[in-house]
Specification:
Strand order of the largest sheet: 4-3-5-2-6-1-7-8-9
Shape: globular
Order of helices and strands: HHEHEEEHHEEHEHEHHHEHHHHHHHHH
Distance between the termini: 45 Å
Number of strands: 9
Length: 652
């Protein structure tokens, strides 16, 4: 890495971080010094890590392939495998290496480029992708000069592995490209929640709107996305003003519309020797603007990393301040200072005891979460089932019933699949609201919930039993069927006799009686068939309701147990720290006057240093934040960029 300008914010940051690190060591807080060292250690890495994230089918993988000029390199239309990510960096030749966790540790295995999907995608060989951590790909392309692109699992995959891998990647990211599609639905709630989580970890973010070539309304969709983001951020900050620092930058992040399809068409024209047409298509693809944004991220990685280091340093200083104030109280000439400090610790311990009791009460309340899940599932599935029952009541004959029964399983399956996402969302909102309140009451950060989605139950087993079958024999009950029909026949026969005379009765009455009998029998068959269909449908929906409820109850219980365990760990750690402080403060009275005076002077000196370093830290964070925000300034799009003129077909 080149030596920065000594007067630049980055150079001042390096000196600042060294001072905070030294102060932590001098204060006997080796643990805090190591934390800061870990954050600052990334300065040695001269490669800018850019995480590319987004939901499935948002054009993420094709975008990466187009950027590096290899259309078939990264699997398209198949999500990255659970617990795996793809790393693309510049190298002398095209090659791929699989990194796998084994009993002997992390192993590396070279593979062919063609076999990458087998190891790294959900459509690959389950045996080959087992225990794969990453697939590193090298290729010689100028786009990757000083850059490393990290392709992560889709953020809507909603499995434990996918979510954890993507979030883990953000810990090492210098920047984030978040993809959305111009040919798909607007940004969804779970995507916004992922972005909020990402903003806590990475400051440099850009949005990429893909697939603009065939979308006539991509501009309006982009504005809708911005509006949804703005609403989400505003509501989140209103609920917790402390999140303003991390969430507000999302509103100023750039939006870059691109078309991988047009960029690929441009390369095809270039190979044909049609340079002018290739240049026009390339300009309209938006890829040049995206590459300029990547260059900006690369050039500004020190600012992005610096902002992270400053935040860590300020946290370290806050912890050091407590110890320094204790030392001042220990060496005070006024014994009341030490007594007051001890009283503060005792008060904190008493408050912690109250929190522990509140934690137990909250845990009892949390047990009702699983029960509420059943109500959510039942309500949603009742909404789905009712239209089917209404349709069943309109069926008039066996032919309609047979046709309906042929279509029912697949139709019901689609309805359930459509409702599943909403049920998941309702359940997550319920759990998040309840568990966030539980965590907040205990002074913990908001919880992170990871949804584990199982396959949908299948309704293809719905069958019509008994007399619903078309070829079932008709069993006639003489009392129930024949006598009422004969009576009706005679009644109608009497009406006919009045009009036609005795001969008319003799000719018409038996025919009418038979016709009415058969018609009534068919109607009763339809009615019994309708009842059987409704019964079968309700039975199947009851089964699906039970299965869904059990799955979601297990999921919610896992969330609850994890949050409660985190609460227990946090409370135990806080109690340990407070008890250690109290023991040290009490032992201070046994020290000599000289030792206490030395502790006071040291504490006063550290407090002054901490105050000065804290002020400098806030100033640096402001400067670096502005520098990072400047990286997010949307590059000026060249004339002819997407949307400037009507879309061009890729084959033009």
């Amino acid at each position: 890495m080149t030596t920065p300008d000594p007067t630049s914010p980055v150079a001042r940051l390096l000196r600042y971080a060294n001072e905070v690190h030294a102060l932590a060591g001098q204060s006997g807080r080796k643990d805090l010094a190591e934390v800061l060292a870990a954050y600052a250690g990334r300065w040695k890495d001269e490669c800018t890590d850019i995480v590319v994230a987004g939901a499935q089918k948002r054009g993420k993988s094709r975008l990466i392939n187009t950027l590096v000029g290899r259309p078939d390199l990264v699997p398209v239309d198949a999500d990255v495998a659970t617990n795996c990510f793809l790393s693309l960096r510049r190298g002398p030749q095209l090659a791929a290496v699989v990194h796998r966790n084994t009993d002997k540790g992390l192993t590396q295995t070279p593979i062919t480029v063609e076999s990458i999907p087998d190891y790294a995608s959900m459509r690959g060989d389950i045996g080959k992708r087992r225990d794969v951590v990453s697939v590193d790909i090298t290729l010689d392309t100028p786009v990757l000069d000083g850059l490393r692109l990290l392709d992560t699992p889709g953020v809507d995959s909603l499995t434990v592995g996918h979510r954890q891998v993507t979030v883990a990647m953000l810990q090492r990211a210098d920047a984030l490209l978040f993809t959305l599609s111009a040919q798909d639905q607007p940004v969804l709630r779970h995507e916004l929640e992922f972005l909020a989580e990402a903003a806590e970890r990475v400051r440099a973010i850009a949005f990429v709107l893909t697939k603009v070539e065939d979308s006539a309304n991509w501009k309006s969709l982009m504005e809708e996305n911005k509006a949804r983001l703005r609403t989400f951020v505003t509501e989140a900050i209103a609920a917790d003003p402390g999140r303003s620092v991390t969430l507000s930058p999302l509103l100023s992040a750039p939006w870059i519309p691109v078309s991988a399809k047009l960029a690929e068409a441009a390369e095809a024209k270039r190979r044909e020797g049609r340079q002018e047409r290739a240049d026009a298509l390339r300009a309209r693809s938006g890829m040049d603007a995206l590459e300029r944004q990547l260059r900006a991220f690369a050039e500004g990685r020190e600012s992005a990393r610096g902002a992270t280091v400053v935040a860590a340093a300020l946290s370290v200083l806050n912890s050091l301040s407590t110890g320094a104030k204790d030392d001042v109280a220990v060496g005070s000439d006024d014994e009341g200072d030490l007594t007051a400090r001890l009283a503060e610790v005792d008060a904190d311990l008493a408050a912690l005891t109250e929190l522990t009791a509140k934690r137990r009460a909250g845990a009892v309340a949390n047990t009702f979460l699983a029960r509420e899940v059943g109500s959510i599932v039942a309500a949603r599935l009742t909404e789905i089932r009712q239209p089917y029952e209404n349709t069943i009541a309109t069926l008039k004959n066996q032919a309609q019933i047979d046709k309906y029964m042929a279509e029912l399983p697949e139709s019901a399956q689609r309805s359930l699949e459509a409702a599943w996402s909403q049920i998941i969302y309702d359940t997550e909102v319920l759990a998040r609201t309840t568990l966030d309140a539980f965590a907040r009451d205990l002074g913990l950060d908001p919880v992170q919930l990871t949804v584990d989605r199982r396959a949908m139950p299948n309704l293809s087993a719905v069958q019509v039993r008994g007399d619903m079958a078309a070829d079932a024999p008709v069993n006639v009950d003489l009392v129930r069927d024949v006598l009422p029909s004969a009576s009706m026949g005679l009644s109608f026969g009497g009406l006919a006799a009045a009009a036609l005379g005795p001969v008319g009765f003799l000719l018409v009455a038996p025919a009418l009686g038979a016709a009415i009998f058969l018609g009534r029998r068919k109607m009763e068959q339809v009615q019994r068939s309708q009842a059987a269909i409704r019964t079968a449908l309700r039975d199947q929906f009851a089964l699906v309701t039970r299965e869904m409820t059990l799955d979601l109850e297990r999921m919610v219980t896992t969330w609850r147990v994890n949050v409660e365990q985190a609460a227990d760990d946090s409370l135990a750690q806080r109690r340990k720290e407070l008890e250690t402080r109290r023991a040290e403060l009490k032992s201070a009275s046994a020290r000599s006057a000289a030792e206490r005076r030395k502790a006071r002077e040291s504490g006063q000196e550290r407090i002054a240093k901490i105050a000065a370093l804290t002020t400098r830290g806030h100033e640096l964070r402001k400067e670096l934040g502005a520098a990072v925000a400047a990286l997010g300034a949307a590059p000026a799009a060249p004339e002819g960029a997407p949307g400037a003129v009507p879309p061009v077909p890729a084959g033009a």
